[in-house]
């Protein structure tokens, strides 16, 4: 069965996005992306280290195989986010941006007001905007209305590996919005990713749980399989939960 | 003359961006540059004046 993920005008076979931070080396990152068969990979923008200027992550990613999705990490308000998005576009990459505005360093929770402001500006400027948000259904709706191509609600704080603590609100987002919902941040193990997909999320983004695993390549594969399993379960229509037992074996012809 | 590169002062004899790249051993293909808050289109050269503030930026791993 053909089951591609359509975002804006592009179609993807993989529903597992990978963040490229925290890997022990670019080669380990590349092996994980390949094992995951991921087609959307995030990167960040930072000042060049003048003592080591040419260490270059993009050399390890094939733009024919993956969409390189720059983020605006580090932005504390909409002005900084817009500036980073424009710098990313100036590099010659396609005008896609993962919009992140996280002014508070301890929990790195996204600022909803600044994110919405930045999204409006960037959509008008022709970007495909994928905002990282708290799991706020009304904010998700507002971002859809201003023209974002996905919403990316968090499961729990970035890098915390706590899994999906925002479950009920993610369910409401899935009910309310008509653009792809990508569960991002906090997914600590493959079962967290499977859960997101079983709920009906269009995709998940994983970074820390793969990059800091004992074996990142094998963990990338485990997440790939979990995402496929969760998606397959969702499409197969999961039977309802019941309060009491319902025998699986026939109740007639009993030897009594 | 002096320019500010990523918040650090840098002494310069030639007065253009590509000479600065040579000085700093930076491959222009892999960076994005902002001069005094304005983006310089990729691979373009530009004149530099005393006191110009440059941000030289590249992609790194991130989530």
Structural commentary:
- The complex is a heterodimer of chains A (256) and B (63).
- Chain A has helices at residues 26-36, 78-90, 112-124, 137-145, 167-176, 190-199, 208-211, 216-235, and strands at residues 5-7, 10-12, 16-19, 40-47, 67-70, 96-99, 128-133, 152-153, 182-184, 203-206.
- With 256 residues, chain A is α/β, with parallel strands linked by helices.
- Chain A is globular, with a radius of gyration of 20 Å.
- Chain A has a single domain, classed as Aldolase class I (TIM Barrel).
- Chain A has a 5-stranded parallel beta sheet with strand order 5-4-3-10-9.
- In chain A, 35% of the residues lie in helices and 16% in strands.
- With 63 residues, chain B is mostly beta strands.
- Chain B contains 1 helix and 5 strands.
- Chain B has a 5-stranded mixed beta sheet with strand order 2-1-5-3-4, with no helix packed on it.
- Chain A binds chain B through residues 19-23, 26, 29, 42-48, 50, 53-54, 56-58, 68, 70-71, 73, 86-88, 90-92, 158-159, 185, 205, 207-208, and chain B through 5-6, 8, 24-27, 30-32, 34, 39, 41-42, 55-63.
CATH homologous superfamily heading of chain A: Aldolase class I
Reported by name, the CATH topology of chain A is TIM Barrel
| Major sheet characteristics of chain B | 5 strands, mixed
Under CATH, the homologous superfamily of chain B reads Beta-grasp domain
CATH topology of chain B: Ubiquitin-like (UB roll)
Residues in helices of chain B, as a percent range: 10-25%
Shape of chain B: globular
Straight-line distance between termini of chain A: 46 Å
The quaternary structure here is heterodimer
Strand order of the largest sheet of chain B: 2-1-5-3-4
Number of helices of chain B: 1
